[in-house]
Design goal:
By secondary structure, this protein is α+β, with helices and mostly antiparallel strands. The protein has one domain (14-108): 2,3-Dihydroxybiphenyl 1,2-Dioxygenase, domain 1 (Roll), CATH 3.10.180. It has two helices and six strands. It has helices spanning 14-23, 66-75; strands spanning 29-31, 37-39, 61-62, 80-86, 90-96, 102-108. The strands form two sheets. A four-stranded mixed beta sheet has the order 3-6-5-4, with helices on one face. The protein has a two-stranded antiparallel ribbon with strand order 1-2. A hairpin with a 5-residue loop joins strand 5 and strand 6. The longest helix has 10 residues, at 14-23. The two termini are 17 Å apart. This is Extradiol dioxygenase. It holds the Pfam family Glyoxalase. GO terms for molecular function: dioxygenase activity. InterPro entries: Glyas_Bleomycin-R_OHBP_Dase, Glyas_Fos-R_dOase_dom, VOC_core.
């Protein structure tokens, strides 16, 4: 039986991005040994989209109130890297991780499966 999913975010400054996940996002975690932090994620879901190009994977964080979440991030000095765009499936933006990478964030307007 599948008991969970493990997401890996590759980073050019893993230590700073781990601190962001711990301190800014507030995700609890465990030290898997030698400082390798593994964080508990909120409930999750997976979708499979068709593509004409090579297969790829994406990682988004979901929130119930995008505007309130962005206000909270800005108050903590987090850079919002994209203006909020209104998609038919949700409201989309991204924030900057300390490594310089973007972390997409959206407020879904579609039915969600993570609480089934």
């Amino acid at each position: 039986m599948i008991s969970g999913a493990h997401v890996i975010v590759y980073s050019q400054d893993a230590e700073k991005d781990r601190a962001f996940i711990r301190d800014v996002l507030g995700f609890p975690g465990v030290d898997a040994g030698g400082g390798w932090l593994v964080f508990k994620l909120p409930p999750a879901e997976v979708a499979v989209h068709p593509t004409d190009g090579p297969p790829r994977h994406e990682f988004y964080l979901m929130c119930d109130d995008l505007d309130a979440q962005l206000d909270e991030f800005r108050a903590q000095g987090v850079e919002v890297t994209r203006p909020v765009s209104e998609q038919r499936w949700g409201r989309l933006t991204a924030v900057r991780l300390p490594s310089g990478a973007e972390l997409p964030l959206y407020q879904p307007l579609h039915p969600v499966a993570h609480s089934l």
